Amino acid sequence: MKNQLSQLLHIAYLSYDKQGQIISLSDVAERMLGLKPGDLLSQKLVFIDEDFAELNLDEILFDPIFDQIELGISIDNSSVTWVRLYSFRQDDQYYLRLEPIEELISVRRLNKQLAIRDPHTGLLYRDAFINKIKEQPHQGTICCVRICNFQRISEVWNIGVANLVFMEILARFQGEFDKGIFSKHSSDCYCVFIPNTVPLNIETLYKQLNEPFNFNGNSFYSNVSLGYYKEQPSDDHELSLNKAEMATFDALSDHNRLVEFKETLARQIERQNKIETGLRSALYQDNLADSFEVVFQPIHDTKTERLIGAECLMRWELDGQPIPPTEFIPIIESTGEINKLTLFTLSQINKLKSLLAQEHIEARQFRFAINISVVEILDVNFTARLLQALERLSLNPAKIKLELTESALIDNFNYINEILQKLQSEGLMISIDDFGTGYSSLSYLCKLHFDEIKIDRAFVTHVVSDGKMQSLFNSIVSLAKNLDKPLVAEGIEQLDQMIYAKAKGVEYIQGYYYSKPLNITDFVEYVVADKSSYLHFEE
Q: Where's the EAL domain (predicted)?
């Protein structure tokens, strides 16, 4: 009985009449609200919701449409007490029971705040950012700032230092544009809306963001990319933000780190999305030959001019239009499905072997080069998968040459080098493709396990007429001779180019001087036409 009385004494309640005058209230309610019998509620109280919008007092006091309601009570327009109200009526009196919910409201408001702002930087999240700039009376410039070396700083130092770098770059922007609206985009990127009424020199800002700075005696170079879009009067802010983001990602793919969004970029992205969609559909067909084609570009010996093999090149069309491999291969690499094209290429070599056999030509006399992505080599199952495919297709590993671009070898060098050595031990030949464009050092080349150097066409096109290009070409030839590696020159289109390459000691050439890349049927005809091409090889 004492416990029940004690609980009643701690209940906050009050009763009032039809005029809203307090008839009675508990001690707890009196202390909570500072009211007393005889006070008029309409003169003392204001009810508000969690967004601090005023509620209709009469609906809550005299015409309650709730069993319970949560609200704030402001007494004399001063402090706010957050309560849960329970209302009921008996005869001519109204009763309210009040249950304090200060802690609950505090938690809700904190969660709402966390949903709006990043707790570490105080920056708005995307939706809140868009809502905020929609309230602005003017259009503006939307900038996306990305710290390109954020991950590198995090790996070398730690994530705490990387976050300090982020805050430093943010502070530089905020210091210059205190009227800007800032948003957290990701761990290494933030976005800013600058009204048109605020002067903006984007080039100066970009330079300031990229100035070096120091933390604890250590110097840091921020390596910032900045994409931006200047809004037009009729622009939608959310679409404008998307355009600034597009410009930022375009900056990451180019050496130019300051990029303004142009409609041509949107068309490029639309094209890329279309290509990605088409590729995903093509890669999951049962028969890749329905979408992809392997063509063969002949490779000739410079001494005899005889055919010694071919480079296998991938071709793909979208809506009847050819898409350059430089566009679709990187997309396939990003999907992780590039191995499908490698296995498909091997199957086409096997098909070519059968077609040549019908012409009484031994395909084993030729070596076929296929391009290998570094993405494949980094797959731990690559070597086993490749060797299994060669065995299944009865292809001699010694007649397969794997071409890798020079730049692909720089990262993960030790691991890739081990894989190359393993592949060589199985009889495969390793060729360094596009040599001279990847900036690899001589120390890398001395350690690398490879069999051949392929000179990029950039050094061939003007080699006859350009003295500087001749010097570069001759240097590559000299390097190959010193390393005791044979050379292939690609892109040979003119007789004088072929004569020059041969005179300098290049062993093999490919290019339009002999032939463009040929489909499988035309390549068979090409081999047949070169009647002695398969007779000069030793078994």
A: 272-531
